[in-house]
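Task card 7
Instruction: Convert sequence to structure tokens.
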Amino acid sequence: MQDAYQELFEALELHQNLIHAEQQAISSRDLSTIESILAQKEKSLSLLIAAKANHTSNYSPELNSRISKVLEQQRKNTENFRKLHIQPTCSEGDQTNKVSPLFRRMRQAYRN
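Output:
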């Protein structure tokens, strides 16, 4: 059981590190890095889900605290990304056709 706990803890730590990197990329308005981190976070979430499946739902206080911190960091990242007010370079009338695919994906990633 200790191995399953360690696997879950390490997967959670990896995901938390990615969220921290995402926070820094959001702060610097680096959309390319944010996009890269989002792809890494998808893989990280897969690892986290697999690790969680091998562990009981009775988490230790330490693990529960870590999970709460990760969720709070993700909420803050989402909120901060929304505050960026990144606007496409085209006019409102042309917006739907000329918005860059990267901008469109970023908007989609942080939409409710």
